[in-house]
Amino acid sequence: MEFQGKKKQTRLCFSFVTSLSILGYLCAATKEMHYDSRPAIVEEVHVGVILHMESREGKIVHSCITTALSDFYQMHNNYTTRVILHTRNSKAKPLHALSAALNLLDDVQVQAIIGAQTSMEANLLAELGEEAKVPVMSLSQPSPSPSPSNKYPFFVEITQDETSQIMGISALIEKFEWRDVILIYEDTKYGRDIIPSLVISLQEKNVYISHKISFATSSRSEQIIEELQKLMQLNTKVFLVHISHLFAPCLFLNAKRLGMMREGYAWIMTSSSMNFLHSMDLSLIESMQGVVGLKSRIPASRSLHNLTSRLRRKFYMEEANVEVRELSADAIWAYDATWALAEAIERARIVNSTTNQPYTELDLPDDINNTRSSRHGVLLLREILEGRFKGLSGKTRYPNGKRNSGAFEIVNVIGKGERTVGLLPCVEGNIKESHLLHSKRKLISTGDLETIIWPGGSTTVLKGSKSQLSEVKLRIGVPVKVGFKELVRVDHDLQGNRTYVTGFCIDVFKAAIGALPYKVHYEFIPFQDANGHSAGTYNDLVHQVYLKKYDAVVGDTTITSNRSLYVDFTVPYTDLGVGMIVPNEKENMWIFLKPLSADLWITSLCFFVVTGLVVWLIERPINQEFQGSPSQQIGTIFWFSFSTLVFAHREKLSNNLAKFVVIVWLFVVLILNSSYTATLASMMTVKQIQFNSKVNSIGYQIGTFTKGPIDLNFKGLKQFIHSEEEYADALSRGSKHGGASAIIDEIPYIKIFLAKYSAKYSMIKTKSTTNGFAFVFPKGSKLVHDISRQIETLREEGKLLEMEESWFQSKTTLMYEDKSNPNTLNLNSFRGLFLVTGVSSASALFLFKVFSLKVGDMIRGQQQRIRMFFLNMAFQ
To answer: Where would I find the Ionotropic glutamate receptor C-terminal domain in this sequence (predicted)?
Structure first.
């Protein structure tokens, strides 16, 4: 039995040894197979990494990049390329990042760069990458405004586009029915760049940013507390915060200390801070209780969980002070971007080995495509932009150098972390296009959000200004006018003890405020004394808004820079500028004589006669048409000369000298005729008024701003009461009889006046020297923006013009811009022409006489020779 036991043990040992041998052989074979599957030749591709390696986030992002390469080549060990990383520390300074990039490009000759964590670094590296034709994959937060990727094709943004976030913030505020918010942002390029797009998005939702405040990154606690105390005095308690996670402790710890994190306040935050909530201290998270914000959505997966676990173990062993509870969105995007870069490098090498000019297919500027030295960079860039895969953050691609838009989670800070209360779908395209696509539906409907716990532990949504405006009745002051009641008219019903306010200004206000998406109650209060007369000037009326006696002023109130110092105006709802009213000129039956002065008329007539006489003298000896009886010859002289006025002369000229005289004279006649026609046409169509500063006076309306804007250099300025009848009476009497030669006023008043007196008066000299009429509200009122938008809509739809025509009863009235001043033509302007024709006629007449004398001498000599010839013949 003992022997059998030993034998059995021997067999077991032999079996164990045999199994180990077989297992070792299999392992060796497997290892050899793996070794054989590796490529025989591996090409190393150098890639630069520029991060703030002294920061917690920089270390985690760098670990994600290195881990991504390890995971990538473990899965694709048959690839013929291997990425070699060269890491540089930017120290959170743009110049350090630039210096590191120059070193990587010149000394290491990297083919791509990953980094640029700030917008300043991104701008510098984008310029450098464009010059070197090397792709730069940026981790900086992209702004909704035109980014470097639009200007620099080699700049690739690997973080999430901001379009969805801006749309989500607007939708969130719209859902809570807040009408105004206070914007708090960090005074950096990224913080400022988001404001224009955010304002546009909020305007589409009829949300008004009542106050904006910015903090520098280096702001001290005392400065932050001082600004927050000012915000506490405002009525608006809804804060929209756009700051970095590094500045969040400075803001919220002080806000908690001041009691601004209690019930009655609401805080909305962007993803620039919420994406890093997991890395914040518990004391900061405790001070942010009740904050609602947007966080980039990263779908949960086993791969993401494994990556987080590996990095947690790595930092626990290597740097115990860095705790990795959760990976930030930036770290995950860097992981995916590294994976995309490694894949693009492999594909670029394959393309490069199979074709010589593949880069011409890429849609890049011609100067890039035609540069042979940029071949590898263009190939690599094309593969990056065309690549697409499913990474840890979901479907990943970089069309046009930007990461595709992703979804956002709506989170609520509760306890030691956050709780997801809703999901915001991704929105492709720019802000304006997105609004057009989503204008008919809300991104966040009523049932999309779970219960939110607000600051102070309340679950009740803070009531915004929308509810406040519905509950308060606005006190609106209106002017009491003597004239021009088409603008504002106040009537008192003594029997019914009621006051009726009507007019063009009132109708515009009612139409604008009635079109608002919320109800506003109001009442009109006439600005009058106990006797029913105006209680003061327009400045006094506007000042009542500043004193908070009125909530608004509706009437013919002109926008001025001085008034804008203490009140806010809507956009103007009337024409801008002032004009001048003048009497129409009386018809003159002798107006056809006015284009030419008397001396010019006389000179022209004389030259007509002289020219005809010169032509007659030259043509009479040889031309039968200029011969005949004395009366016929005199008639021919006048007929020929004056017929040239309309180029109707029919006599044929035989002498070249006469033709020369007529050609010059016809040129003079052409100039005279054209000048006369142009001047007469101007006089017939343009109403002129000439003032003598010594005897004429100009009238203007009391209490308006027409005296200052136009300097007409007149000494006699007169004031008239607010009445169209007073204007007509003053103009009819004229300045010599105690009236005025003209009246200056704002265009709306002139339109009302001309609607009644268009037959006798006209408007000239319009100048945009005033800003038109507008409604008055207190400083910071959210109604200014809303009413202004409705006024613009009324103008675009033509309703504003319809109301104006209805109240002003507009008639066709000529309104002239007195830019030209056609004066009577005088002799001085044509002295040169008359000199030319005079010299021409005199020269021709002189030459004619000279030639006539020579011809006469020749004829007489010939006759003498003939007589001598016949005499000689007779004597022979």
So the answer is: 473-810
- pLDDT band at 374, cuts 50/70/90? low
Residue 876: inside a domain:
no
Residues of the chain with pLDDT > 90: what percent? 17
DSSP label of 825? B
Q: Which of 559, 579, 601 is the last residue of a domain?
A: 559
User: The CATH number of the domain where 362 resides is what?
Assistant: 3.40.50.2300
Q: Please determine, for residue 269, whether its predicted confidence score (pLDDT) is greater than 90.
A: yes
Instruction: Say if CB 149 and CB 377 are below 8 A apart.
Output: no
Spatial distance between the Cα atoms of 699 and 727, rounded to a whole number of angstroms: 8
Which of the four pLDDT bands, split at 50, 70 and 90, describes residue 412? very high
Q: In 758-810, which residue ranges form alpha helices assigned H by DSSP?
A: 782-797, 799-808
Q: Which pLDDT value is given to residue 642? A: 66
In angstroms, the CA 354 to CA 375 distance is 14
Please state the three-class secondary structure of 114-138 as a single string. Answer: EECCCHHHHHHHHHHHHHHCCCEEE
Which distant-in-sequence residues (6+ apart) come within 8 Å of 273 by Cβ? 241, 243, 244, 245, 248, 293
Does residue 346 fall inside a structural domain? yes
The amino acid occupying position 437 is L
What are the tens digits of pLDDT across the range 601-636? Answer: 788 778 777 777 777 777 767 666 676 677 666 766
Q: Is residue 234 part of a domain?
A: yes
Q: Which domain holds residue 86?
A: 43-159+328-386
Q: Which of 431, 406, 435 is nearest to 298 (CA)?
A: 406
Q: Which has the closest alpha carbon to 367: 203, 133, 29, 526?
A: 133
The residue ranking higher by pLDDT, 146 or 583, is 583
Q: Which single residue is written with the structure tokens 């003061």?
A: 536
| Higher pLDDT among residues 649 and 545, named by residue | 545
Evaluate the CA torsion angle 235, 239, 243, 247 in order and state its sign: positive
Shared domain check, 19 and 75: no
Do both 86 and 100 map to the same domain? yes
Number of structural domains the chain divides into: 5
* Residues paired with 215 in a beta bridge: 186
Following CA atoms 121, 123, 127, 130 in sequence, which dihedral angle do they give, to the nearest 10 degrees? 90
Residue identified by tokens 């070792």 is 24
Same domain membership, residue 433 and residue 288: yes
Is the backbone of residue 44 left (phi > 0), alpha (psi -120 to 50) or beta?
Answer: beta
* Helix 189-204 with 119-132: angle, nearest 10 deg: 100
Q: Both 508 and 601 in a single domain?
A: no
Residues 30 and 106 in one domain: no
Buried b (16+ CB within 10 A) or exposed e, 408-439: bbbbbbbeeebeebbebebbeeebeebbeebe
- Asked whether the beta carbons of 508 and 800 are under 8 A apart, the reply is yes
Task: Tell me the C-alpha distance between 175 and 165, whole Å.
Answer: 15
- pLDDT tens digits along 714-742: 445 555 555 667 777 777 777 666 677 67
Rounded to the nearest 5 degrees, what angle is found at the Cα of 562, between the Cα atoms of 560 and 567?
A: 85
Burial class (CB in 10 A: 0-12, 13-18, 19+), 652: exposed
142 & 182 share domain:
no
DSSP assignment of 399-455: GGGBPPP--EEEEEEETTEEEEEEEE----S-HHHHHHHHTTS-SS-GGG------G
Q: Which amino acid is located at 431 in the chain?
A: I
User: Which of 395, 423, 457 lies at the terminal end of a domain, its last residue?
Assistant: 457
179 and 254 housed in the same domain = yes
